[in-house]
Design goal:
three-stranded antiparallel beta sheet; single chain; 197 residues; alpha+beta
Length: 197
Amino acid sequence: SIRRQRQMCIRDRKYYDKLIYELALHPEYQKMLQDELDDTNLDNYTELQNLPYLDAVIHETLRKYPGAAALERTCTKDYKIPGSKNVVIKKGQKVSINRIGNSYDAKYFPNPEIFNPDNFSKEARATRDPYTFLGFSQGPRNCIAMRFALLEVKVCIAHLLTRFNILPCEKTKSNFEIDRTTIFGGIAGGFWVKCEK
């Protein structure tokens, strides 16, 4: 017989683990996402791509837990930094962009330590420069696999949440340590949640 509740340890090294973790700790956001998914044909690409709250939850996860701490780019022309006396980045110099600094800047994301999908509502996005969020980088050198990665996580999370409630259990930790042995910075040792049909 199938048990109605199960505990499982999540060990995926991408951002699914942190998304599931946050939804387990925030049932109100999970419920809003499940409500959005209830009226959706999950096998229809167009419908799945047009779910604003699913997008917001994924992007908020990427904001709070960037896949890499920084981006590196090569300057294509001499550029004087606005507001500086005479600081010029020369053509050919490497520039490192602090993704974590952007993601945790309270000027763009109020209470940045708190998981809040409303940071990516249509209204919130309209109030800030799009370059403040660098989940997949921006511009002509953004992540070539961005569309596939987003589709993959949307399909996985949508099918999971239409079948289960993700809940904390006695083994769920309120804080976790980032796994520093992987480029994706998963949760060290995985983490535990309960799945309820």
